[in-house]
Amino acid sequence: MPTLEGIFVxxxxxxxxxxxxxETELRRYLDWLIERGVHGLYANGSTGEFLRFTPExxxxxxxxxxxTSAGRVPVLAGxxxxxxxxxxxxxxxxAAFGARAVAVVSPYYYRLGPEALGAYFHxxxxxxxxxxxxxxxxxxxxxxxxxxICRLSELDRIIGIxxxxxxxxxxxxxxxxxxxxxxxxxxLTGWDPAIAAMLxxxxxxxxxxxxxxxxxxxxxxxxxVMQCRLERAKExxxxxxxxxxxxxxxxxxxxxxxxxxxxxxxxxxxxxxPMSDLGVDCKxxxxxxxxxxxxxxx
Amino acid sequence: MPTLEGIFVxxxxxxxxxxxxxETELRRYLDWLIERGVHGLYANGSTGEFLRFTPExxxxxxxxxxxTSAGRVPVLAGxxxxxxxxxxxxxxxxAAFGARAVAVVSPYYYRLGPEALGAYFHxxxxxxxxxxxxxxxxxxxxxxxxxxICRLSELDRIIGIxxxxxxxxxxxxxxxxxxxxxxxxxxLTGWDPAIAAMLxxxxxxxxxxxxxxxxxxxxxxxxxVMQCRLERAKExxxxxxxxxxxxxxxxxxxxxxxxxxxxxxxxxxxxxxPMSDLGVDCKxxxxxxxxxxxxxxx
Amino acid sequence: MPTLEGIFVxxxxxxxxxxxxxETELRRYLDWLIERGVHGLYANGSTGEFLRFTPExxxxxxxxxxxTSAGRVPVLAGxxxxxxxxxxxxxxxxAAFGARAVAVVSPYYYRLGPEALGAYFHxxxxxxxxxxxxxxxxxxxxxxxxxxICRLSELDRIIGIxxxxxxxxxxxxxxxxxxxxxxxxxxLTGWDPAIAAMLxxxxxxxxxxxxxxxxxxxxxxxxxVMQCRLERAKExxxxxxxxxxxxxxxxxxxxxxxxxxxxxxxxxxxxxxPMSDLGVDCKxxxxxxxxxxxxxxx
Amino acid sequence: MPTLEGIFVxxxxxxxxxxxxxETELRRYLDWLIERGVHGLYANGSTGEFLRFTPExxxxxxxxxxxTSAGRVPVLAGxxxxxxxxxxxxxxxxAAFGARAVAVVSPYYYRLGPEALGAYFHxxxxxxxxxxxxxxxxxxxxxxxxxxICRLSELDRIIGIxxxxxxxxxxxxxxxxxxxxxxxxxxLTGWDPAIAAMLxxxxxxxxxxxxxxxxxxxxxxxxxVMQCRLERAKExxxxxxxxxxxxxxxxxxxxxxxxxxxxxxxxxxxxxxPMSDLGVDCKxxxxxxxxxxxxxxx
Lengths: 298, 298, 298, 298
Known about the structure:
The structure is a homotetramer of 298-residue chains.
Chain A: E1 6-10, H1 23-36, E2 40-43, H2 55-69, E3 75-78, H3 84-97, E4 101-105, H4 114-127, E5 131-136, H5 146-152, E6 158-163, H6 168-178, E7 186-189, H7 195-201, E8 205-207, H8 215-226, H9 230-249, H10 255-263, H11 280-295
Parallel strand pairs in A: 1-2, 1-8, 2-3, 3-4, 4-5, 5-6, 6-7, 7-8
């Protein structure tokens, strides 16, 4: 049985007028997501702008997520600090908070080759006090290849991968190479427009930015595939794609997703990235697509 | 009903020792493919190295395919000549040969933007004497975007698209935007490792280089999805991926696929690209994977 | 002494209202260029849209260039036919026409690796009846690397390289690795905005699309560097950049350069690429920059 | 007069056996560089692995550089913290330490468009208590375009740019658009293999990783260009290229440059990136090229 299954939310972080973390609103938002039925939370992901917070703020975000969940759903904690030592320190802290696992993005800025990537994750996987999820997002960071992922899957501490490439052949290659030896290994896609197809080829779930905006829709797609209602799954997927595409293409990522959560009634506030926020027109477009996506569920 | 359904073979072209087209062997090879049950032939595709033949040779290849098929299966003919006038001339010739449609790759070398691509295909789609299949292969030529494809789908003569991007979200986007207005539009994937998943999201078929090597396996995947035997489809897909990956990664494309057809008993000969042929070891590896892939069908 | 020195023009081809080659205007245009003092002509380059002409038309273009030059300046002839055999045939024809050398672009569409590229050029370099210029244009075709170029420079028939990468470190690397063993080897840049700097690091000349529009300016830059009037060279270079940038960025390449030649009084006509021509506003902008560039010479 | 001229060293940071900053050795190394005659120090650059240190460590590195320089040469301090607020805080600290300016890399991980980049730098440029150098390194972070750079050059606090693109046309475009309005603006290249050519087109200096290994050679190139001894400059440039290429291509960047500084007698220690260090053979190769490069100066 895979360790992690279902829909995880890489949640955005509400900020107040001074640009500080709005802890109250974050709790209210996470509570709402859990009540909608999401299967887990994912703190400090790309959608959560982990890079724009200080190490201390990242810790606060994980703490709030763990406290709000209070054991109701597993919390995955992004943990890509400045270097291996700092990352391992964060792991300890997150373990103490009650996180289920850490997700470690492959190194960014410098583009590392397979051997160096393997060494990096091997060191973390060997020493971490908490289970580790690999995080592959080739658009933003050094790409992991199949051979390296397979080797890393031999470490017990490494329990799965979140892959945001959107490449379905890559997903199937990983699954067919790893599943036999590691039936517990989790394969989560981070590419919302392909969640139905990814589940079809064997992914165990998704970490979906749009699930922070329309958790109902993402969960309905997941349920439809689980129940083998494939036509329904594809119909719902089409609606998720329309919403996702609007949120992705307007403004700078993840502004569209922040606007989406705002559209659901949360005071998300301005991003820390100057001028990356959306205009009123864009917000209306996002709002319309949210409405369309939810209506199909009614 | 989609116009084109099933598995089409973008066949390689056997050459004799002087490097000329081995017409006899080509007929024998195409006849074998048709007898295996493939749903159509695709002449002068990327796997068929259309670029390395002269305009006259390309005509010969289509002629041989049409004659060998003799109406048993539809023949699609790649028709990307030097310019629109030459392409339209080729269309007339191919219509006279009995080809079902022409497939026109988007312009290569220069990378054209959406507007110029739209104008190019609009001119061909408006004037062609034969149905037209768009051919999108971003790895090699100017990429087509969804909006342009949708507009082109308003022309009756344009009956479908072959998309070799391997991007399943892109496939689903095309389908959800076009199918309602054009229920006859055909969506063929050119990405073998994703054929099962592409059919799952609604593709009507595939143009698969590996179907020229193991038509039995490609056809079995297609049949499994049609019969909703999804687990079987995925199992077979895994074998196709293993074979495809070996053929793609050894030597220069499409050497591995030429070696594969050779491995099935046809005298394919050396490619026209100097030194792009595989060593003995590679041929053995390809042969082993062909064997593995066929054994699972037994 | 390098075999090829100075400013070569990769000229555009005038077309009449039916889209056929306007031979009379082509002769008039080439004659004008030679009278302006350009050091050579370059037929069937990227700017000359070699890909949009038939093999027969490409032969006609080289024939017209050779006849018009009538020995006044050397003619380089682009010769990238469908395969090695066809390319060698073109070489023979071009030799008979009186071309000085053929320029062979590295294979496009398929992206070949270093070994296959080396084999391709080795076969041409060993068998050609005419001197060969390598043509590296990574934006459009398979990139050549330093090691492969060095090896190919050991063949007598290979007399130089046209490099359109615009990468000045790459140019200097080539020069420092090859010049000692082959003092006759020619290094021509195809990147107009860097011609002054490329000459500074040792390039022997340029194949400049903008020299077909403002030969006076390109020649003045060349002369300034030869005379060590470096400040003047840079001042003129700035004007060439402004014109080049406008011609490159408006419409689809090489529309801006066709509009530029039109602006100098030649009936270039519409391109064969549908809708790639410029609007009136763009033509005015190109015209203004031509005017600015020439005024600085007065 | 440009504010910043000459050769600046983006120095590597010595680490002890526990992986902590070896402060004593760092002081000794920086002192050696200043005594060799470098025109300035550049703390926390890409070569300095700023990303692999904590915010506190980055402060320590700048402090050590300022103290060691003690006013002998200007210190530039890389300051790309998690967000604008944190970056401004770092600026204040670095001003107090005595840094001459901060260098701010364009945001990485997310790829921002021109408008968002402009807003980001505008906010920093408007509020910083210290002069600001833009840092463009398209290989690793969001690329800055000419128009955005020109607009930012209107802010007094923004005094220059470090550009590591290696694109000489880009450098000349910047200079010709900005110099007239801002004669004090500094243009530093970060691309060692083109330093001579960049100075030729008007760059005011370089931030050169190899200057941390062979400051003598980098300084000799700079002096040669200043004295118009261009042939000598190019000869020395060739040696710098050979050394740079070896250091860049072996191991993961910046391992080769760390090995180079080690080769000059400093205890640089292992990098924080697991397994990114070089083998003995590579170190010997680096050592040989250092020797060759210095010998030409003798």
